[in-house]
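Me: Here is a favour to ask of a fellow structure person. Could you put it straight underneath, so I can go through it closely?

Assistant:
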Amino acid sequence: MLIVSRVQSSMAVRSSVLLYWFHVFCTGVFADVWKVTVEPDMQALVSSCVVLPCSFKYPVKEQPSDRIRAIWHMKDNWDDIIFHKDSTKVKDSFRGRTNLIGSLGALNCSLEIDEVKNHDNGPYCFRVELETSKTDKYSFVENCVSIKMIEQASKPELQAEQSVQEGEPAVFTCSVRHTCPSHQPTLTWNHTGKVIMSYKDIGHGNWETQSVLTFSPKKEDDHSAVACTVKHYGNVKGEMTVTHRIFVKEQATLSHILIPVISGLGSALLFGLLCFFIAKKRYRSRPGQFTPQGGQNVITRKSQEDTHSTVLFRCEGTEANTQQLLMYSSATNQDKTPPLVIKY
């Protein structure tokens, strides 16, 4: 009796182990054949549209699109259908606003929701039904999509150099991100030039629309504002325009080089003549002997007291193109008069 009990206990343990591994095996198999890939968290701009990316797999032989039925429904209530090819089965608040933009034959179940309302949060789940048999159907309620609503659009991003060179090509790049690739937003400029538009999938259901403007700035463009404006699909509210002020550097010409040189030479000549005439006028009424000594100009004159005085003067040019008239007086009668300095 004891032996029989032990045998039964051993068989029960083995059966449990076999059932466990059978469950693991079946789970892996069915998870691999009935599979959906979606973005669990999406964003949508109210009054615009949003596309929920979706792809799926099923266990039987590949079927054409007309033998596959796609359904999108609410997670909490499968009877709340937001998309069905039979529009009479679609919930009233979604009827006419949803569209399957993917090809079911290519295993694409992406859904577009138009005229997004601020209460279209979901979560939404995909269900596939194959016409091969009544049992080939599956609802992916463990992989659903929730949507976060954005009430107002944000202005686009504008990238450019603030200081540009006159006559040389300047590049301005404007871009905006969105989740509605079926109706791409448009970007326009307030300045003429060459414009290149591009659209890029940046992953996780997000897209980027980019516009590149190229033009050669002129003098008239100095301190002007280059503006980029985005237009989203639908009646969207928000800030749509971004501006960028530019400063234009004038192109160097021959006149830009000659004018400073001529101006400098003219200033030097003018100050030299001014220095000469002031010295001549200053000592015109004081007769004396004019002799150069050691690179300086010396005038020797006779004073009223019949004593001799020597007057020393020198013209100097400073870095600021000013002239100094330096005059020194030394008399034989011990005159201690300080030197006279005249600046011009």
User: Anything to note?
Assistant: Residues 2-33 form the longest helix (32 residues).
